[in-house]
Amino acid sequence: MATIEDVAKLTGLSRTTISRVINNHPYVSEEKRKLVLEAMEKLGYVPNSSARSLRNQKTSILALFIPRITNPFFSELVEATEIAAAEHGYQLIICQTRYSPEKELNYMNLLKTKQVDGVILASIQNEWKQLKPFLQYGPIVLCNEFDDCANVPTVRLDQVYGGYIATKHLLEQGHTKIAYCSGGYRSNVAKSREIGFKKALAEYKLTFDERYAFRDAFHIADGKRVFRQMMALSNRPTAVFTGSDEVAAGIISEALACGYRIPEHLAVVGFDNQAITELTNPTITTVHQPVKQMAQKAVDVMIEKIQTKKYDVQEIYEFPLQLIVRASTVGSELHQSEA
């Protein structure tokens, strides 16, 4: 393990200057600060006086990375993960990245400095090649979000199938002009749902009209915006598949405020099966994700990796999705499961 002397030798600076950089002392030039930080990164130096003992220290703490705590899907995932971690005698800390690649990398230093025993990534903001080096410090488990390049365990859902069954349901209701609404463009979850969406269209000999694509929609307010954009089109869609129940609720709210009827004028399908789907009027057709089972599996796998110290093994654990049909697409209450 590199020492502060190694950093001083590589930079040609004194130990005092290195220490001042580590402790964010104000009286250090930006040039020297940059030089020290680059040397620390190159040497893999952990700025902690007891770093050598920390290498084998167990904190009994896990970190869960999520993009936004106010999203009900991630709130439910946080609760389920905390319960599962507690069953193993672990505490959970939450790291909210707000979709920032920089914040994600900064939080990864919790693993590097041995402040947590492992990291569970429920979203990914960086390419895997930027995250992979942190495996030398501890285990990483992907949960919900995934990256085929990642050589770590992944607990995921069949998102292609989720997009497929949601779209097929709308097609079975007679819709041919179907809009697609998704979140972040980096997300493999969103990309997979779009693949399923287009697969269902292709089965009905339909091609996707890019004018019906609405990206970067995450909140209720985004749903309201998307509805206004759809209604501004000369050839309006009669149905929309969204990647979020929040967005679906926003679309429905704005539609009703503008005098439109759901599903008569616009059928709406959400995703996640959040509590809000049964509180709106009409209630929302959605795709149910088994969040509790996914969280439990992610924690179980993480504990196994901590114990075996085999971090760089790709394992895929995939859970099924269910279509829940409600009034926003058929006009009457009907719960339907599809395996």
From TrEMBL:
UniProt xrefs under InterPro entries: HTH_LacI (IPR000843), LacI/GalR-like_sensor (IPR046335), Lambda_DNA-bd_dom_sf (IPR010982), Peripla_BP_I (IPR028082)
CDD domains named among the record's database cross-references: HTH_LacI, PBP1_CcpB-like
Keyword Iron-sulfur belongs to the record: no
UniProt domain HTH lacI-type: residue ranges: 2-56
Name recorded for this polypeptide: Degradation activator
Gene3D superfamilies per UniProt: 3.40.50.2300, lambda repressor-like DNA-binding domains
MF-aspect GO terms: DNA-binding transcription factor activity; transcription cis-regulatory region binding
Keyword entries, A-Z: DNA-binding, Transcription, Transcription regulation
